[in-house]
Amino acid sequence: MAKISKKNIEEILIEAIEKAETELPKDVIKALKKVADIEKGIAKIQMEAILENIKIASKEGIPMCQDTGIMTFYIQAGTEFKYLADLKKMLGNAVKRATKETPLRPNTVNPFTGENLGDNLGRNIPYISWDMVKGSECMIHILPKGGGSENMSALWMLAPGEGFAKAKKLIVGHIINAGGKPCPPTIAGIGIGGGADICMQLAKKSLLRKIGEHHREKKVAKMEKELFELINKTGVGPMGMGGATTVLDVHIEYAHRHPASFPVGLVLQCWANRRKVIKFEKNGSIKVI
Amino acid sequence: MKKIHLQTPLSTKDIKKLSIGDTVFLSGKLFTARDQAHKKMLELKKKGKKIPFSPKEMVLYHAGPVVKKERNKWVIVSAGPTTSIRMESSESKFLSLFGVKMIIGKGGMGKETLKALKKTGAVYVHFTGGAGALAAKSIKKVEKVYFLEELGIPEAIWILEIEKFGPLIVTMDTKGNSFYEK
Q1: What mean pLDDT is predicted for residues B46-65?
Q2: Number of domain units in chain A
Q3: Does the distance separating the beta carbons of A45 and B23 come in below 8 Å?
Q4: Is residue A37 in a domain?
Q5: Four-CA torsion A196, A197, A199, A201, nearest 10 degrees
Q6: What residues in chain A have per-residue pLDDT under 70?
Q7: Which of A18, A110, A287, B67 is the most buried (most CB within 10 A)?
Q8: Could you report the predicted ipTM of this complex, rounded to two decimals?
Q9: Chain A (219-258) residues lying within 8 Å, Cβ to Cβ, of chain B
């Protein structure tokens, strides 16, 4: 726990980004260990390599995956948070400095010219999602998202009559086709309803949940469990090499929909489910979880 | 399913012995090449220009590393494999032009590459996706980097000295077998 001052916020942000890249959250490590225990043959070799890899990364403080991702921040900010106006700039600076200091791979490229300025900044990047709440606290979720898993995202605009039954089939089929590409065992984030953009955002935001943390509504939690079992029955397995575990968890978030549409978004997160949370408390202290 | 240690330059004999499911640990030299580096090398060849290193004696690694400079020397920080299928459209040509005997990547490749592997006597081996720190531990030295300024860090060609790099699983062999087409 550190006291807040404008000067040290940037340092804390850099440290949190570095920790996100080098250490996995406990719930993820626990889930990966469980998979290594139950898998056999080539799948087990993959899981053992993953466990060895995360051990080296956290011990030596180096990024566990060379794809250190595109920096994405989800902020729940109190409207009276003292540094609200400076936060965007501070995050940009922190990303730039972490790119040099951790170091991270420079991943932001101009989509047309391919130019890479080498600092992980660019138009609309880092991506920041703002949620305003009452009060003086602030919570920042860091989600570095790799390209391999992001490339396996999908959006379906279904007919409402087809609904969730059709969505389940499409999601399972999609994950079979994706095979080893999104680096399984993955976490499947699913957004339903809202609109094309809304369901995709919900799908990605659901990845902030811990492994084993289910939707607060029982009915939705049951749908998560059903999909979890269906996907793991496919046999895609760790790295697509065949096995009992294709997903570590399934998270669903929803929004109410237009009566004419049933949007379904799917965002996969690789096994390197890197997340960190920074909490600015009311009493002026900062926690990195 | 055997466990095999290999050393570059790889011989045809070494490669022909490998079958799907074998685990390989590799020592010697590799070069990294992703989308842009494939394009660049094919362009140079087309123009009749010289490739500044000898791809034939090394192994091709689909990867874009995290690097840093320490005392004026490049050091590889993290270097796991990238998704190989992105290189599918140029790989068969690449194999026949450059005579590479082994490709390391993740996720596997398609029919055209499988045909080219059989024709040129090469294999594709899978390395655990995301295992960047594990890979870096087996990378002993950065021998050289090419096209860094033009292509940027992830897309540049890094020539690396490796020791017991793996575990690599053979998933496409010289006999036309592919794990991905089962």
Answers
A1: 96
A2: 2
A3: yes
A4: no
A5: 160
A6: 1-3
A7: B67
A8: 0.92
A9: 239-241
What pLDDT, in 10s, does the model give residues B5-35? Answer: 999 999 999 999 999 999 999 999 999 999 9
Please give the residue that has the higher pLDDT: either A283 or B139: B139
Q: Which uninterrupted H or E stretch holds A284?
A: none
For residue A281, give how far its alpha carbon lies from the nearest alpha carbon of chain B (Å). Answer: 34
Q: What is the pLDDT of residue B174?
A: 97
Calculate helix-pair angle for A218-232, A163-178, nearest 10 degrees. Answer: 40
pLDDT digits (tens, 9 = 90+) for B160-177: 999 999 999 999 999 999
> Do A159 and A227 belong to one domain?
yes
- The verdict on residue A164 lying in a domain is yes
- Label each residue of A243-280 as H, E or C: CCCCEEEEEEEECCCCCCCEEEEEEEECCCCCCEEEEE
CB contact under 8 A, B36 and A183: no
**A140 in the same domain as A278:** yes
Q: Any idea which residue has 């397995």 for tokens?
A: A237
A88 and A215 share one domain: no
* Residues forming a β-bridge with A95: none
B126 vs A49: CB contact, 8 Å cut-off? no
Annotated active-site residue B5? The verdict is no
Residue of B nearest to A43 (CA): B128
For A87, A127, A128, A276, the CA distances from A83, given in Å and listed in that order, are 6, 18, 15, 20
A57 found inside a domain:
no
Instruction: Measure CB to CB from residue B107 to each of A49, A68, A240 and give the nearest one.
Output: A240
Is A117 part of the contact surface with chain B (CB cutoff 8 Å)?
no
Domain boundaries, chain B: 23-181
Residues A13 and A73 in one domain: yes
Sign of the C-alpha dihedral computed for residues A68, A72, A74 and A77 taken in this order: positive
Residues A153 and A129 in one domain: no
- Domain boundaries B23-181, corresponding CATH code: 3.20.130.10
pLDDT at B83 over 70: yes
Q: Is the pTM of this model over 0.80?
A: yes
Q: Which domain holds residue A118?
A: 2-22+64-146+274-288
A141 and A280 share one domain: yes
Residue A172 shares a structural domain with residue A142: no
Does any CB of chain B come closer than 8 Å to the CB of residue A53?
yes
